[in-house]
Request: fold
Amino acid sequence: MSRRHTAVPAALALSLGLLAAAYGPSSSMAAAAPPRPANLTATSAPGGPLGPAYDTKTATSVSLSGAGANSINPFFEKVFYEYHLKNSNTTITYSPAGSSVGISDIEQGTVDFGDTEIPMAAKDLAKTPRTVVQVPVDLGGVAISYNIPGLASGLKLDGPTLAAIFAGTITNWDSPQIAKVSGVSNLPNLAIVPVHRADSSGPGWDLDAYLIKTAPAWAAKVGTKPSKTWPLASVGVGEQLNSGVATYLSQTRGAIGFVEYGYALEAKFTNAALENKAGAFVAPSLSSIAQAGSQATGLSASDFSIIDEPAAGAYPLANFSWTLLYQKDPNEAKGIALGKLFDWVVTTGQQYAGSLGYAPLPADVAALAAQTLEALQTPEGGPLFSK
Amino acid sequence: MTARTSAASAVSVKEALRRRHARRGGRGYAAARWAAAGLFLAVLLGLVVSIAIDSSQALAHSGIGFLWSGTWNPTANDYGAGILVVGTIVTTFVAMVIVVPVGLGMAAFLSELAPRWLAGSLSTAIELLAAVPSIVVGLWALLVLSPLFANYLEPFLKAVPGLEWFFHGPAYGPSILLASVVLAVMTLPTVVALSRTALSGVALADREAAMALGATHWQVVREVVFPGARSGIAAALTLAVGRALGESIAVAMVVGNSPAIPHSLLSTGATLGSAIVNQFAEAAPGIGTSSIIALAAVLLVLTLAVNAGGQALLRAMRPGRPGRAAGAG
Amino acid sequence: MSSVLGTVRAADSGADAGDDPEARWSWAAGARRRPVIHAAARRTLGRRRRAGRLVQALCVLCAAIGLAPLVALVYYTAERGLGGLSIGFLTHAPVPVGIPGGGISTAIVGSAEIVGLALVMAIPVGLMAALFLHERRGHLAGAIRFGADLLTGVPSIVIGIFAYALVVRPLHHFSDLAAAFALAVLMLPIMIRADEEAMRTVATDLWEAGVALGARRSRVARSVVLRGALPGLVTGNLLAVSRGVGETAPLLFTVAAPSFAMTLLIYTEGTEPFPAAQQTAWSTALLLLLFVLVLSGVARLVAWHLTRRAR
Reply:
């Protein structure tokens, strides 16, 4: 009799054990040290200390998994593919599910690296199991793309008009307010379909910041702090990720939405020229995004915004993308592989950026990236790469 | 003791042990059965307990008002399931409005009107529709149906006089209507297959009795066949509702994802399933993830209630039903 | 009653009376041709017949409406997906946008691994639990049956969250194991119920005969119950597999990257605006559709063949 009745309690004990493992304290969740501010003075030459001096062929076979920003995916896809061709020992998988997913996964320790368009704030950094460093890896822009049949290009928009479109106060393309600003005289009688990101996003933050700065009506509605979650989500259609917005834009006449410029370029969208701080209407392009990036003096993870920079040819919606790495990766081989990978990405890898719609990193930002990578440590606390 | 008696008693002891083992059926086998049963129960209980524990943080933070609160503000850590529950119920309801007449009509066609060769092949075809993965239905709805809806169907519906209360506002394509149609396509096979079995299962004697009393074909179907198939049809509809409530990914692709109570069938909305799909991965660990898991808990309770209620309904309808013979499928 | 009708039908059509297998199919014909009996019925007959014809037309319409989505789905998937299918598609790994010649090999292998692992977990447990239900009565068995019915109704996204909490979080990484666990939990109740139903078809006398002959219970289970129930077992398990293969929601929070599972790949590629990505999505969808249809067809065929042989 006792034989039969031991099996059920054993199974229950097994399930309790599994639940305890799921909910019990995990030994790897060490208390997080306070984040160290990045050193801003550029002390390393472009190319960084890890560059040419180190052989890119990593010795041991390493598999790296990352998750994060959707906007950087065209660039990451390409550079990770090229890096793997040169280093077959390193396999990299990246899940472009969104910046917040990357942050959430880094906070839970379920990935080796993350990427986010908007860097983590101090309060989020405090939640991570180990210290996290943020490395700028590319420079991209947010295009305002539209689908108006017959209008190939040339639509100009300023902050207040764009705000009115996304707030739902202007509902048709033939509105006089648009005609006044846009530089196009005979827009069709077509309903406007504003498309935003249903998930939280860097492009959403960028546009929100731009509209807050340039349109008082928008700031009155949503406040003065930009948010990654689109504030007026009940107006128009919400789609997941850049890909969702882009797919919907391509299918729907009258739609206007914000997508990462890399996606707009690949999908051959028509993009609006936005009014920047200098009063010029600038369309997104490599040079206008690069000009916005070159204005980034004193860039750091806590002072990162290059929205609406006051240069004549600067595109007002540009941002750097930040890779999240653990300062002390518990697996030293992975730590070395990650350091070498991203050192390659911010130096040699930048040659692939231009054709994909991203501008190469300016020299001082590349130096900042190299510096941050230099600060990576072994699990014991010593420097991972000696100079 | 002589050698013979000791040998005899040795044999009898072995024989007694063998018989005892035969009755017990083998140690490993019994343990395996109990272990499997226990493991299954452990998984079931583990699921419920795990969801409950993970959602407790959010429920403690927001209180019971979480269930009907209409706000959804992740940045302010303010979460409420109200809008999503409304969206879930509306999409399921509209899906059922489509599925019940079409499904029962088709089941009646297959069971009563179609010649046998046609009924057999159509039934097989419908069961194959049941096997289509939900992601393929979602892909087709997103890339094929959505433009058709936006460009043709939705403007048409807006123009129909008298239906303005249902169909007004901007017609974007992704909408409550499109999501409901997707749910209808996915639950139709279940309803048709089970209802058809139920209808065919009504005894011939009952039909002939009604016929002998002068009923036409349709009268027999209405007065005898459908009432006789009540429990099977109820089971089919319960299963369909349960499936429609829980469908997440196909709905997430076409519902438009706007966190507001829909004011028309053409407006975008969100359901519990679609919200979980879109927001779980990016929710901030802690209160954020806990709130999404609380949504999953609400969904779980809803579907379990529908399923359990349906089973209770079946048990209430089953005993003493005249004319319930085993169905020829 | 049927003999009366049989003679009536014979009088009308000269057909063979009492032809029972045809009875249900021709009784409607008989209803149309038999003579009217009652005066009141005769008065309303025309109206009732017209109403009946209207309903018949509606039913045919409903059947057409019901069939339309299936036809449209299969047609569009085949039309858009066929162009992308090739040997290279099946054997090459995915490549970035803009580079031609990629494929979905990692997704096919990944899906196969995940489903295979899930089957290894679910099939033995399902069989043993079904044997448990088959051989015992009482409250525990009833509770397990009820639990299995409830678990089949649990939305797959909730199961995905459970797998995340139980496997991904403690292990600190996404994995095929977590995805397999989710699918196993999904398939298990279906398998248990289907297995038990199949075992019920084996007559209890056979089982009792086996035990009476002194065989151990496990032997009886193997030789009598499992062998007799084999058609139903195979069908039930294959149908559970085809359900598991097509699920996406449980994989969302458990798989490391979309390129490791076919269903997730359809989701991520299908929502991209680039024609190449959408082509990949349609072709993968077509592959999945064909696989699931073939699996269902095979399940039926096996069941039919084994039932025939058992007779």
